[in-house]
Amino acid sequence: MNDTLKLLHTHHSTRSYTDVPVSDEMLDQIVRAAWHGPTSMNAQEISLVVTRDAATRARIAELAGGQIWIAQAPVFITLIIDFNKTEQGVRNAGQTQVIHESMEGYGVAAVDVGITLANLMTAARSLGLGVVPIGGIRRNPQAMIDLLQLPLLTFPQVGLCIGHIDKDAPLKPRMDIATFRHDERYDDSAYQAAINTYDQTIMNYWQQLGRNDGMTWSQNLGNNLKQVYFPQVKPIAAMQGLLNDK
Fold this sequence. Notes:
Blueprint: H1 3-9, H2 24-35, E1 46-51, H3 54-63, H4 68-72, E2 75-82, H5 83-92, H6 103-126, E3 130-134, H7 141-148, E4 154-163, H8 191-208, H9 217-225, H10 233-239
Antiparallel strand pairs: 1-2, 2-4, 3-4
């Protein structure tokens, strides 16, 4: 197994960082790795806002639901769906952009955000840094928009903490790979047995960490997926012009 595969096979989130800054050289290498990632139709409809200011990071931590590691990590990157950028290119061609009003547009932009996020995480971890992605910035998207001064046709989709690791976390176990890989056609016949086994496995993991508040995978999903946990996404995205109605 080569070094890249070892890095990917040991992915884990870090929520404890030292106060050592991430060097400009490291940060530039990380950002450039993401910049070189693919986007659908070469639209390049993703932008990054890199935040190092401590007060701003503290505010983002508050908006994300009190995630203190955002304030602790010396770098926070917000990944932006940026149809403002593409709209300017479309106007240059004498056309009118409509893709930002569609489910296809939002879906493909979310995919491209995911690719960009993966490149950022892999690049940072290859330099020995820790990372944790933050979906909680969608808890209050309007406040994030105001804080980062985002224009219409943009949306803060996800964030990423980057920093030097203080206390590292062990690798979290995954569900049986048979629930992930389907050969030739989809087959969920192994799901229920695998879920039952994984519920016990994840509880053993929490117990090893001394986490008395740990829940099974099923319980965690039940608590979160029984509702739209970030209900402001749809109305604020619509106010930004990302209507998702086509």
